[in-house]
Amino acid sequence: MLIVSSTAFSQHLKGKVLNTFSQPLESAYVFNVTTKSHAHSSENGLFTIDNTSVGDSLKIGLLGYETKFVVVSSSSFEATLPITLQEKAFQLDEMIITEELNTASTITRLDMNTNPLNSSQEALRKVPGLIIGQHAGGGKAEQIFLRGFDIDHGTDVSINVDGMPVNMVSHAHGQGYSDLHFLIPETVNKIDFGKGPYYGDKGDFTTAGFVDFSTKDYLKESAITFSMGDFNTLRTLGMFNLLEKSKHQNAYIATEYLATDGPFESPQNFNRINVFGKYVAFSSDNSKLSLTASHFTSRWDASGQIPQREVDNGNITRFGAIDDTEGGETQRTNFNVEFNKYITDNTRLKTNAFYSHYAFELYSNFTFFLEDPVNGDQIKQQEDRHIFGVNASVVKETSLGSTPVTISSGLGLRHDIVNDIELSHTLNRKTTLEQIQLGDLNQTNVDAFVNAEFEFGKLKVAPALRLDYFKFLYNDKLQVNYTTQSETKTILSPKLNFYYDAASNLQLFLKSGIGFHSNDTRVVVSNQGEDILPRAYGLDFGKVWKPFPKLVLNSALWYLFLEQEFVYVGDAGIVEPSGKTERYGFDLGLRYQFNDWLFFDTDATITHARSTEDPDGQNYIPLAPDFTLAGGLSVNDLNGFSGGIRYRYIDDRPANEDNSIVAEGYFVTDFNANYSFDNITLGFVIENLFDTEWNETQFATESRLQNEAQSVEEIHFTPGTPFFIKGTIAYRF
């Protein structure tokens, strides 16, 4: 009787979910069919499931893998139970929403599987509702639009890669500047995103949302890719597996070279070199150590933003220039160490430490001869930056009586040292006519957060609290006397989220929270601490629903209020406050699988964005989109063929506060097709399939040409790419 009772007694069962390459699988759903208890595998593939006895049946599933059933035996408790899942084609009808750890991550994983990344720009476009535009020769960070924001280059969305921040605080060109071009798209494993200020572990810039990229831990195979296309476009890529036969270690290196002249009459002479390496080791106690190193360098020439009047009167074409001496160069070197460890069966530690060296030099001319009728208005923005940081978080799964509770808490530090941050009036990228700003700055951000998730049956309640401390220091080198200007600020950001599983394939959510974004250090100290960390108040109500087996719908009604809207003034090198604003809207996403190989997706957003301190008709927020639409039809591995057609649309939108100047919308279609046989893949990409005449970026700018007596305020734009075709050949080994 003692033997029988001891073996029948419910216990904790520890297991590890792997793929056929012996690599851990994250977010696999482990369900005890007998007792109805459940768990998810962690980043290390590990899980602990409660209330489990000998004879119970476990169901282990992950979208894109064959479901497996395991009968628990007495030996299952003696060591960590290994479970191997076999990869297979995605089947949307197998997805059960309540079993997904993160539905947003699952959606992007589905999108990446049916539409693999082949450019760093596409990486951001994987976020539903996010639109980007390039306006400076390909080397400058993209302009971002999300939830009624013209985010410029990252003011209202935080972007991270492997826990390392991409946003640059107090940047020479603009606050939050996010140059993601150091990310080689083929190395991306996972994209997590969230919209709104609702996440305790996300801080600065997380007002419209966040995007987190995770790189691959291993390569299934090595590959060499070569691409050529219109406008002298060339891309080479090498992906090399360095530890192919090692079971507990992975290492690979990826190298990328990209060059193009673009469609412009003055060649862009753009080139970029990327090198990325990663080493991953798993210890006997299932700890995981990751080391990554990367280097990126880029240079380019640009035709800048051209005035509409010069195109209309025939003086220049859409691909001409007023000042073709614009351009720049930039580089970034990164080192990142990540360490994950289970402290106990129910407590895990995740930490990373990083260092980045970043250099930037940009030449622009927004107004031509408005300020200087002789030499022109060209400016140089330059900086040299060192970033040090560390993040650590602990996740503990416990219970409060019969209520399961998951508590996450963490600490973080980021320290930026920026030397010789400069704004100067220049001529022909050679002569400095006047130094407008020059100085050194230090900015430190220390943060702490705690997040709890209480499971009351079908209802999950998740309160969170975040604390951020900032220290701003600036030394103005243009002052006669050496002085250090400084300011400090602390902000507390509460969040409260609710998730309700109305059915196995219907989840409702209500999210609420307060977020913020920081201002530029130079503006902070000159304003004596005014408008340092304006708050953002947000609310989301929505659902994720599978009304039919092969259809997934996600939708949300949302509202966001900002205490202060920041507008970047490029030729002055400052960030100007423009008052309180509010935005509200509706997001809708759809994923449908016709059969094993044909997928359809689309994402639409409707937004109302206004200033609350200006009268009606004078309260438009410049460049805030009212309606966006993006999606496509994808073929995935049909007898070796894959590809698809993609579209993106943004409507006409106000370019100034009274809507008297309008930025024209566009609808652009891209097409790609690939055929794989043996170890070779042949493919081609067509951008702007129907050769649409469209403006990629647009601004209402006051400018004066050299032959004009008076200035004119109107649309200045960068033309979008015309019909463009590129062919690719890849060899895998």
Topology of this structure?
Blueprint lengths: L1 H7 L2 E8 L10 E4 L5 E3 L5 E7 L4 E5 L6 E4 L9 E4 L18 H12 L5 H6 L5 E3 L9 E4 L2 E2 L6 E5 L2 E2 L1 E2 L8 E2 L9 E8 L13 E7 L7 E7 L3 E9 L7 E12 L9 E13 L5 E15 L3 E2 H5 L13 E19 L2 E18 L14 E22 L2 E25 L3 E26 L2 E18 L7 E20 L2 E11 L4 H6 L8 E14 L2 E12 L3 E4 L4 E4 L3 E13 L4 E14 L15 E12 L2 E10 L2 E2 L7 E2 L2 E12 L2 E8 L7 E9 L8 E8 L4 E9 L1
Parallel strand pairs: 1-7, 11-16
Antiparallel strand pairs: 1-4, 2-3, 2-5, 5-6, 8-9, 9-10, 11-12, 13-14, 15-16, 17-18, 17-45, 18-19, 19-20, 20-21, 21-23, 22-44, 23-24, 24-25, 25-26, 26-27, 27-28, 28-29, 29-30, 30-31, 31-32, 32-35, 33-34, 35-36, 36-37, 37-38, 38-41, 39-40, 41-42, 42-45, 43-44
Summarize the structure.
It is a multi-pass membrane protein. This protein is mainly beta.
Q: How would you describe the overall organization of this protein?
A:
This protein is mostly beta strands. 5% of the residues lie in helices and 57% in strands. The protein is built from 5 helices and 45 strands. The strands form 9 sheets. The protein has a 22-stranded antiparallel β-barrel. Strand 13 and strand 14 form a beta hairpin. The longest helix is centred in the N-terminal third of the chain and has 12 residues. It is globular, with a radius of gyration of 26 Å. The N terminus is likely disordered.
